[in-house]
């Protein structure tokens, strides 16, 4: 075995075992032929193999059931995570816009969230409104591009937002990676990273009409709720209550799938993490009784979703 062949065989191991089982010899031969013909630039083969390995591990078809289920879950987590981020931005925009128009709000947690040291922006109202618009746009723009079929543009924009957000994080917090900061910001970065990885050229695009309807309806609802609704039943977050309702509705409709069960479990966990970090930071770890009830209900729902996902996956692959 020649040195180039040995190197290419080691490189092919980047691919999952099921993929290279019937293709390894053919792929190594094609790489050797391309190398001898000068059609393969130095270093390009490794990048091509890494890209192929990612697509194979997040395949949408022509792959084992466990691989397809994992790929579908990654794509759904990206969509649901960005949907939640967009709703958060619109909710905050409605809340702060009412402040700007002279309708003061009294929600202690929301009003104090920018004083916890977990914000990348100063607290004056005009800059807060700009922050709300930026956060909503950072989620809506990649989704809109993806729904319109512009997959590559959606991934590029998601990458720009991810890099810019991470750079701002490093600048603001001087390369500090404390658990509370990571717990607050990672839920914002993860859906962007999964969108880049999951929606490769071999992955199906989401059903645009359904997602546009959900996005428009959800944005209108949370904008109104953030603008005009104030109550003492907020708990750690209104979105935690929404997560509980979504979990109940999901089980009530009885149209489960492994990908949806796991995706909702992951996204509901992300919904809980950020407000928990905020409460722990603001109140030195003290929680009200309503907060604990909310966390218990959402946590039980997440556990139920995880169990349902395991059951659905086993039924699907049986």
TrEMBL record:
Coiled coil: none
Residues passing through the membrane, by range: 67-87, 133-149, 156-175, 181-199, 211-229, 235-253, 260-280, 292-311
Keywords: Membrane, Transmembrane, Transmembrane helix
Protein name, entry field: Uncharacterized protein
Species assigned in the record: Amycolatopsis dendrobii
């Amino acid at each position: 075995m020649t040195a180039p062949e040995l190197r290419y065989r080691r490189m092919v191991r980047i691919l999952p075992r099921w993929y290279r089982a019937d293709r390894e010899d053919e792929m190594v031969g094609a790489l050797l032929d391309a190398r001898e013909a000068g059609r393969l630039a130095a270093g390009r083969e490794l990048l091509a193999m890494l890209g192929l390995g990612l697509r194979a591990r997040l395949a949408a078809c022509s792959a084992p059931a466990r691989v397809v289920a994992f790929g579908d879950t990654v794509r759904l987590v990206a969509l649901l995570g960005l949907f939640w981020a967009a709703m958060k931005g619109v909710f905050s925009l409605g809340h702060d816009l009412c402040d700007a128009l002279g309708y003061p709000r009294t929600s202690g947690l929301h009003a104090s969230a920018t004083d916890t040291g977990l914000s990348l922006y100063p607290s004056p109202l005009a800059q807060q409104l700009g922050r709300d618009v930026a956060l909503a746009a950072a989620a809506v723009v990649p989704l809109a591009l993806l729904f319109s079929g512009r997959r590559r543009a959606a991934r590029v924009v998601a990458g720009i937002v991810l890099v810019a957000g991470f750079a701002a994080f490093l600048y603001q917090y001087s390369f500090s990676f404390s658990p509370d900061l990571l717990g607050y910001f990672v839920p914002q970065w993860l859906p962007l990273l999964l969108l880049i990885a999951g929606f490769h050229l071999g992955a199906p695009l989401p059903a645009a009409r359904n997602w546009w309807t959900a996005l428009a309806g959800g944005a209108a609802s949370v904008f109104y709720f953030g603008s005009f609704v104030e109550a003492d039943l907020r708990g750690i977050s209104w979105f935690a209550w929404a997560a509980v309702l979504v979990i109940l509705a999901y089980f009530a409709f009885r149209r489960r799938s492994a990908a949806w069960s796991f995706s909702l479990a992951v996204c509901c966990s992300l919904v809980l993490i950020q407000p928990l970090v905020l409460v722990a930071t603001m109140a030195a770890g003290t929680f009200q009784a309503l907060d604990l009830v909310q966390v218990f209900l959402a946590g039980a729902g997440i556990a139920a979703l995880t169990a349902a996902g395991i059951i659905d996956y086993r039924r699907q692959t049986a």
